[in-house]
Amino acid sequence: MKMKADYKFFVMICLGVSSLVGQGIYNEHRDVYLSTEEMIQSYGYPVEIHEIITEDGYILNMYRIPHGKVGSKVNQKPILLMHGVYGQGENYIVNGINNGSLAYLLADNGFDVWLGNSRGTQHGRKHISLNPTSKEFWDFSFHEIGMYDLPAKIDYILESTKKEKLHYVGHSQGGTVFYVMASMRPEYQQKVTLASLLAPGGYEKHFTNSFLLPFTVRHRELTKLADVANIYELPPYTMKLFQMVSTACSTAVFREICVFAYHMVSGGDSGELNEQILPLVFKYLPTVSTKQLLHYAQTIASGHMRPWDYGTKKNMELYGQPVPSDYPVENISVPMAMYYSLGDNLAFAKDIEDICDTMQNCVRKFLMPNEKWTHMDFLASKNLAHELNEPLLEFIQDFENAANLDGF
Ligand SMILES: *[C@@H]1O[C@H](CO)[C@@H](O)[C@H](O)[C@H]1NC(C)=O
Ligand SMILES: *[C@@H]1O[C@H](CO)[C@@H](O)[C@H](O)[C@H]1NC(C)=O
């Protein structure tokens, strides 16, 4: 347990240095000290935890906010919110109230909100037989999340609520996994009224992120290296890297470094980051499977959105062809709305417009008004309420009303 001791030591150093320079904790966010349930309850919302088991044995928790503080408390319409890579359900509540958090806004406006967590997140580190420290546990990518996690969640929600359909919202990988499910298990499309995708990843033909491109080009070497070195979880859980960063972000001395690191990862400073919530954002960063990242690298390098490429020999055994076929996105007919930005250098606007045009029923292309809006601004912008959440809610409501009218 040497690592654990190191982590405590690090926290003490951070807090110590910070008090020495006389500023103490700069950015103490009350919610950092609360559990997810406590955080939701503290804002006056009801919360439930539900456990589901996927076809392939992963045990995942979902948080449910069945209704809001205002408005109706019965007959709410179910909506599933899915996070991206390095995200989890808390993404949709870290901005507190006043419409900054999509989950509360939806709960107050007639929705029964379910916060999904994929395998590997802090709420998805259990399996009926595999140990989360084993290589086998981490042998998954966005493919399995789309094939098994999403269907299990959707079935569970519809069963619990006795409804026929739900709404879906997905950020980044939350879009990719929806494409996987909708194209490969098309029967699930009937269970979704509308999928609203925020900066969805998937088509990566226009990916020009100069920081990440060199890694994607070397994905084969990196895959071998990760395999030999047994690096199947990133960063390794025992490092507690994100908890360290979360602590550091709460202190005056490290604040600037923290903000800088955030802008590096999110692809620039749009001037919209809500710096107050950074400790909370880092607190809820899960680790991810190395394969998840490498699968995106394959997608970028090949220009094809398709299942994992094992190399010719194993592909022949598994898929009966030298390379896997692309996911048939042209078959997707479920209504889809896209929210994206020109300033996003992880999910490129042109790719999102292309996939929208390829699908049969993409009903909205909503380009963010601030051209510098980044990939992470979809979760942590100061202006989330007015720039994204409210227009998103309004569209979902209009769509829902129109769908109901069509039914008569
Ligand atoms: C929150 O959003 C609703 C619905 O879009 C709007 O009517 C309300 O004024 C907003 N509230 C705040 C505090 O901005
Ligand atoms: C996609 O549509 C084509 C043409 O209708 C069909 O042949 C194919 O089986 C579909 N793919 C899947 C995975 O359903």
Automatic annotation (TrEMBL):
One of its GO terms (biological process) is lipid catabolic process. This is Lipase. It holds the Pfam family Abhydro_lipase. Residues 1-24 form the signal peptide. The lineage of its organism: Eukaryota, Metazoa, Ecdysozoa, Arthropoda, Hexapoda. Residues 36-96 form the Partial AB-hydrolase lipase domain. It comes from the Eukaryota. GO terms for molecular function: hydrolase activity.
